[in-house]
Specification:
The structure is a homohexamer of 308-residue chains.
Chain A (H helix, E strand, L loop, with lengths): L2 H8 L27 E7 L2 E6 L10 H16 L5 E6 L10 H9 L6 H24 L4 E5 L2 E3 L1 H7 L3 E5 L3 E3 L13 H8 L3 H10 L3 E2 H7 L4 E3 L2 H16 L3 H16 L2 H15 L3 H11 L13
Parallel strand pairs in A: 2-3, 3-4, 4-6, 5-7, 6-9
Antiparallel strand pairs in A: 1-2, 7-8
Helix pairs in contact in A: 2-4, 5-6, 10-11
């Protein structure tokens, strides 16, 4: 049960408005308690909007953020009302990456004086932070990310774990880690090569930390669309999320799960997994409902699907 | 022995014309018996043309099609005369996907009343249908697919199993499955991510079923060329197939097999497999013939290679 | 110890000039002894330039080349002074591929009269030649390759093992192997599919041996930049190498190693490996130095990193 | 539909006797048409007995055998009446391995004079023969093999593809291939190491072709039981098959499929596959029937399960 | 922080007695709050004893158990005082497996009427239960399990996830799942084949659910020792745990992690991971301390290692 | 070319005696120059004997040993005269493991003061030492190891990389690494689990460093035979090596390569690799020679096979 998100949405501050699509209202006035870095809302039926909300800190990721992301997406994964997620950043930029000031103590000064024991501590932290973004991937509901302005360091780790990436014209990206003396270890090096189809560019970005602007991001495939500004990119993300949310959740979530499975396995293994997956999923009523709608020239939006 | 294809090609209706390259004649007047959905011809030496031939049904894939594809490509795999294949669709469009009417009984109403036993039945069918497109991949002769007009649902599953994809200007593609309530289970989700280098786009296409037109298909790499119309795309496909068919079949087929192997294995494993493969293949006379031709400034087309 | 490279760089013929960036001087007057096909220099601090140097033979790869590459890159891997490598070809073209004349005896006429024993011999040679390019990948220092003019056959095998690819406007590429009757067996078929994000094009190139020019190479992602001519592409490569060399070698080399690991493993495995890798690497002083520089608004170039 | 096996069982020669367990009648008087090397019977409800039947040739495997095995096990896989299989050999010994005389032409004298083309032919044959034993593994019904006397060469390939192995006291085994100049290529080298838990012994057997007798076969785990003679080993195999056949086919066949999956994948992958598999299988009525029987202190034999 | 376990151990009911090795006291009088099915104690320095404690229910696994195991082992994983774990069962038998009565509602009657949605629910439960035993494996502290009497169904799933298995003479084991109509889905089918080296026996056990007694369990390798009775098996388990706890936790836990890694990867991958792991671990002071002790003819027990 | 071994064998000190089988002479009077830790001889046709020869140091492995092993086995791999190898230890025991005194400087005191740079150094050393034993595995000639007396620490790493293991009655084994504060990192943890079929025992040995004596080594499958003493175990090893050396080297070495491949891949992948391997290997004359000998009731020893 996703009690926090449920109560947040039913609370007085952010009422449940199924038809609400006004983008203007999307950027929340503050985080949704108990979260301190995330603002959760439901701008449209079956669509959850998660906003990284530390605008005065350029949405830098502090210690609380890493923990709250896991809690938030684990709840979204269980929330039967949610069928698609939009992720964005509040304020001027998407994110400036990790909050070095807040996290320095944890990363730069591991406790103890034995190298092995400090290493053990370091590994535990990295694994925990990796999980912060892996939850996005493990959550079966598709996540559309809307980037505007800067998307730096851990921001790239974050967006490569999302399913669909859009950005505004003023966006720029930087795999910044090499500049602060480390190899990016919470997802970028692992996911970026399968996200964009230009390995020379992947290497260049990761090894030089150079900025990449929105046009290049589009042409290399990091994002699938560039929109004029923050408002339009958010609207576009909402539209895509709306399209997804209107379809059978059995079909949509099975698609996400199998797409991710296919990335990590051979085609033969993926086909076998898919066939095994659909043993039960093809017995859903959604198939009959959808097929009937299709024959009647209706769209999925005309069909009511049960919760999943 | 590929008796059916051989007899079809030597039969009265479609005579063997080694030099025939007239595209006009390419669209057959009907399926080649015993096939009821496929028309087989040999438009040029060592090139086999397989045409999906249900034009009045928009080349929808019915039960017979799934079975005939396997039979057809297994025979092509064994046919020593064939060195390259062109695949296209007859009539107005490439294909509208599965023939829901014809297949509904099998898919939508599995027999029995026990979920597990129905699931068993479902898995058997999916596995059988997956094989329909996997035979294209298992056939060591390269397959060039020429798309025109609509390429919907199972059509995308089909073309992602082909080696080279071309399309006409009026083509559009749609990963339609999510619209009828299921996750695409006969190849698209498994192969598309390694076919095009833009994962955000792959996800968007698979999760929203939106149409993608030829220009975007070219820029994202789904097709390697866009031609003006059906006739020109077929001509271009024939030319590529002709180029391939003119080269050493030992070299060509070894290349296809190893490219597919590399997709599913690490680089180290693929290099090992390749070295093992070429233990025998480098002992071919084709190598000496080709090397000699190269030194004499001739092209592979000037060399006669033995059957394979 | 990288005695040969060290002595070469400290020898009278090619003095050590840390600040030397003059591109004009880059193309050496001859190979660096004891090498006969490679010219080694150090055009800038921490940057090693390896030039394939058989200009009068269009940089064709002879028997000596295959052996010298392994020796050269094994030494570079151990050389604590080197943090980035630029690879280019001397003369008119990058390379015309293998030197058929020189190598024919080895490849075309394996000794013995028993097929299995000849096969054994063939496999040993292929494995040895595969290693020639795999050393580029195993060397943890990033390799930027600058292509100009022709890059044919084994040249494509070579560049796909490099990390960053640039080319001049007049460059063209051809996976030539199929034209001489064999499947490319020293890396192209194994690495190209993960280098560029258009599988249809990969197949077309490998199966037809057609030329691909610089513009297409850029749009498909084989290279990340096209420069006007040989001089500018080399300058650009030096700049990128300089950027890389200025950063923490702990960060840079860990990044290369983990990017290559990620190509060959699932995301989950790669994240695990990365966390294990950084157990020790995050304890480096480079991290503190870099973080401090970042907070002081300095760049990595202002930091002095210890040898690695 | 398994027409051949069905008609064989309903024919006049070998009537359907559900309760027949008399071992004496098990060794058939001849092959079951249209098979020429296999005798098929149904000694007990839901149990199929496949007997390799060329007693006067010491059950040597001729060309027909390889083909008939595939046909036979594909039919058994589809036969809803069959829930477990017993495999044994007619006459004095289990099998002397391949029939060199019958197969020499195919294996020893491949057609053609080009090494690559002969290699192509050889690979096709090996792949076909590998499939002969892989069908045993792909058939979801467990196969209990009862060995007596000699089990040589391809006989070992065969039994390692079976699920449960028993043998009589007079049995002996030999991985004979190395003695006729080849590496065993239809399964032994691939399956034996995961079949028995003593790698030193596996290597010794495969590299020296020495005989291993029943006692050592038991102690190393090649067989799970040794019985006094052919009659008792067959009886024991029938009893085990009967035990298996009495249980829910959903449970039994899911168990076999997942055990084989686990052999070839990591534990994490196997757990994921298992959970996906049981999504549908746990919804079976067999579970409720079995659980109810268990609570009523009945055994699975008291439950009637639907066909699968 | 492992607050629960810490407070349990420091509480009045079960005082911390570093030297306590009296086996008589090992079987607790009841579960350790807040646990209701597990009793936690610390019988010796750095050794934690976890006892499955539902003796009047034959230690059947109810809903609470599945949850408490995860909580318990996650805490043990974090507890710096614990270096080895002994697991056993209270009362007459080790465990009779799942508590069908308690869990029937969850497993047998999934909510909803749509097959796909029930399947989704089923998968979530299975995954959760799999995690119950996987935490034993993920916990880097070695777990020695002491079995006595019956070890049935999920009990086998549990012990195959432990590192070292001992049993008493009266023990017997049964992979019971097939008898209640399902394929064992929480670990047995996935882990048993790599636990014991006799695949024929693994298959027989899993497909027939037959009992295996202690002697066979020893000879096939399921357990590494058989002791006369419950008391002696527990003493032996404590001794082994004590031996482990006396050694460097850096060495011990690194060994467990790498042994499990090796099970799921190729030797080459495992060697690479091991080398990467030891980059930091070999820099531990434990190595110097241990080496020095070895040179002084002392044992690890004479060395004091820091917490990990 | 294996110049060192060749010259050693043809030198005055250790003449080439093809028929020499006297075990007494096997233990050499000293290392074979230029080796300082290994003594090389050829006790029988096609059999090479490698003896670890530091008897006064209990065959402890010093720095020279690690380097010489690689050189030695790389030469053996290339030596066409050698078809099988026997490995043993000179003096009282097989080996006491690493020579801590000699290696302490390298392992215990890595140079530098930056953790990351020391880690880099440590990884290089571990990788180098891993290679010392991996060369045994990469050498396609089977290696039979004859153990007597102590086999400790790195000795276990060594023997698990050999193909066939024999030991004398007085042998004992200890995975000693945990006692000196590290996880065994040069092969034991990676190979032992696939060498013996009792995972509980593997874990116990690796986590407690306890001694295992010859009888247990036999019953768990670490060795395949126990002989009375050093002389008889060496004789038995020579006999097995002789059996192997008498067979077709094409068959023998292909068998070793494919057995190792199978350990690290799925059965399907291994079958594919095997079929590809035998494309060329089945075209060997050895097959015809062997088959003919078999038909004439001769043994492989009556056949003369060409060098490989």
């Amino acid at each position: 049960m996703s009690s926090i998100i449920r109560s947040a949405l039913s609370g007085s501050r952010r009422l449940y408005h199924p038809a609400l699509t006004a983008v203007r209202a999307m950027s929340a006035s503050g985080p949704t308690p108990p979260f301190t870095t995330l603002s959760i809302s439901q701008p449209a039926t079956h669509v959850t909007h998660v906003e990284l909300h530390r605008p005065d800190k350029r949405n830098a990721m502090n210690k609380a953020f890493w923990r709250e992301m896991v809690e938030c997406f684990n709840q979204i994964a269980e929330d039967p009302e949610c069928r698609a997620v939009v992720f964005s950043g509040a304020g001027k930029v998407f994110t400036s990456g990790i909050d070095l000031m807040d996290m320095a103590s944890e990363i730069l000064q591991p406790e103890g004086d034995d190298t092995a024991r400090m290493a053990w501590h370091v590994r535990r932290i990295i694994t925990k932070y990796q999980e912060t973004f892996s939850v996005i991937e493990k959550c079966p509901k598709p996540v559309v990310v809307a980037v505007h302005g800067a998307c730096v360091g851990a921001g790239v780790d974050l967006i490569t774990a999302c399913d669909i990436r859009l950005c505004s014209q003023d966006s720029w990206f930087s795999v910044k880690e090499v500049d602060i003396g480390l190899a990016a270890d919470v997802g970028t090096l692992q996911r970026l090569p399968s996200v964009i189809g230009n390995r020379s560019l992947v290497n260049e970005l990761a090894l030089t930390a150079r900025k990449m602007y929105s046009d290049e991001a589009k042409s290399c495939g990091l994002v699938s669309r560039v929109l004029p500004d923050k408002e339009t990119v958010l609207t576009a993300a909402m539209e895509i999320a709306g399209e997804i949310a209107a379809r059978s959740p059995v079909a949509v979530q099975g698609t996400k799960i199998n797409l991710i499975y296919a990335r990590d396995h051979s085609v033969a293994e993926s086909l076998d997994y898919m066939a095994t997956w659909n043993m039960s999923m093809l017995q859903t009523q959604d198939l009959m409902k959808s097929a009937q709608a299709a024959m009647e020239k209706k769209t999925p939006k005309d069909v009511v699907f049960s919760k999943l």
